[in-house]
Amino acid sequence: MTEHRKLKRWVDEMAGMCRPDDIIWVDGSAGQKESLKREAFETGEIIELNQEKLPGCVYHRTALNDVARTENLTFICTKKKIDAGPTNNWMLPKAAYAKAASIFKDSMVGRKMYVIPFSMGPVESPFSKIGVELTDSIYVVLNMSIMVKVGADVLKALGRDGEFTKCLHGQAEREIEKRLILHFPEDNAIWSVGSGYGGNVLLGKKCMGLRIASHIAKEEGWMAEHMLVLGIEKPDGIIDYIAAAFPSACGKTNLAMLVPPKGLETKGYKIWTVGDDIAWMRIDSDGALWAINPETGFFGVTPGTNSKTNPNAVKTIARNTIYTNVLLKPDKTVWWEDGDGDPPLSGIDWKGNAWQPGMRDKEGKIIKGAHPNARFTAPINQCPSISHRVEHHHGVPISAIIFGGRRAHLAPLVYEALNWQHGVYVGASMASERTAAQYGKLGEVRRDPMAMLPFCGYHMGNYFSHWLKMGKRMKKCPRVFHVNWFKQDKKGGFLWPGFGENFRVLEWIIDRCNDKVGAVETPIGYLPRAKDLNMTGLDLPKGALKELLKIDADEWLDDLKDQAEFFKKFGRKLPKELKNEHASLKKRLTKRSKKC
Ligand code: GTP
Ligand code: SPV
Ligand code: MN
Asked: Which CATH architecture has domain 225-296+388-595?
């Protein structure tokens, strides 16, 4: 299969430890994919869905204890602890390899090992990186085949001695006590054992695409970010591209595929989807920042996805899609909460139990049909709004970077940073309420710089410096914004309708980039005045817009205390520029405070 001696030796070595019955090289062909599917149908690992209604679609349930990324079991393993920084779990590489090896040992006896050569980014583009994942799960092979380019072309591009990220995955017993997601940036390697869920096991995604890539990007002078990328085509036909970083389950996939509201669509606006989760960005010869999406598929949250909230996603997932942890209907189609259509009268829930709407558990809580972090895996080229530049090896030029999170209070609908340095501060100090995409207490506000807290593969203080340095190297920096679709009224309802209506905010952002619309300067940055937002065709309840654009200086000053506490973690590695930005913001807010 390959002339790459190092690759062959590594596969042999890993097989020697895991002892699979057989080793199968994934060639990327339709025939092999089909026969793998058949094999998985037979063992029950995957269920074939109704091929008339959902052609090419399959269904999978992960273990009950294995339904989201496990950040507490995720480690950056570097020789020196300081290199992993205060926000990552750390282990010495030697100890980490030994601990994982004891779990991997003989774990593939009776199973097969699949070798998946994959490229993140167009094959043979100078911006792409190659990885090889070894796994004992057909589910992983099928997912990876959608999420990234896999197979013989990649091996060819790798040649006899090309560099690749060594990615080893084994399900082992899928017990939490024996689960480890280990990254070795110094060895360009990833070991993941004991899980069968998404971000823990599709090693191209968060593990290589962000944690390992962010480390390489720092060394090589580019950026690997947890960002969607989209193009906004204006009525004059010119397309501006933006990249947006929101934490997990905070709206990236939805924004990436947005359909402008009717009134604005007829003006001629269109959205083009480049990516929904990861952006690799470089400064090109024109001095601007350009982004590629290194993935070829979406691994998106299903609950909440319906024809109103995200019609493009609904069309994308109608075929050739893997559904994970949703409700299985008797006719072998699927359903999830806040999806299309009424709940079925019966079905099998994500736990594999018989389910009926309205069922309650022992504590009286409604039993959901789909897990809140249930997901679809679908090819990006099925998305009706796919950008024609998605395969372009230079990607797209970025005019604006948007940060955002779930904040029930405090953060206004949108504001613009004063400049790049202030923008880096806005990203570094952002926070969001915890969602079902990771284990932990739901709703708790946590600081999540640039939405990269769980994904930065090195010391985050150095990561902030890298952002500042990139800004200095650019001839024209993208403008930086912050959005919050999730501000709540007193009753806990969302003040902003979100989804397609978010386009109104994007229009202001793009017009700001082109100096076409006004704003008011506030202590936190530039905010639109009510008249600067295009509200044609949207009737918000009285007072809602005022509340959405309100800045309460005292509330902000309170939040600054928490920011300062968080920044303390970075010690001397916190760039002085960010300390200065923090101090200036405090000064500006204090001037406004009612308490002074
Ligand atoms: P990851 O794939 O985990 O990185 O998530 P993501 O950032 O791509 O989030 P996604 O777009 O899948 O949205 C997550 C959840 O937020 C879904 O339940 C959506 O329905 C909901 N959501 C997305 N956009 C909005 C919005 O504008 N307003 C409101 N209220 N909810 C939204
Ligand atoms: C996220 O949690 O940000 C995801 C899903 O995109 S996972 O691939 O599981 O990380
Ligand atoms: Mn994500």
From this structure: Alpha-Beta Complex (3.90)
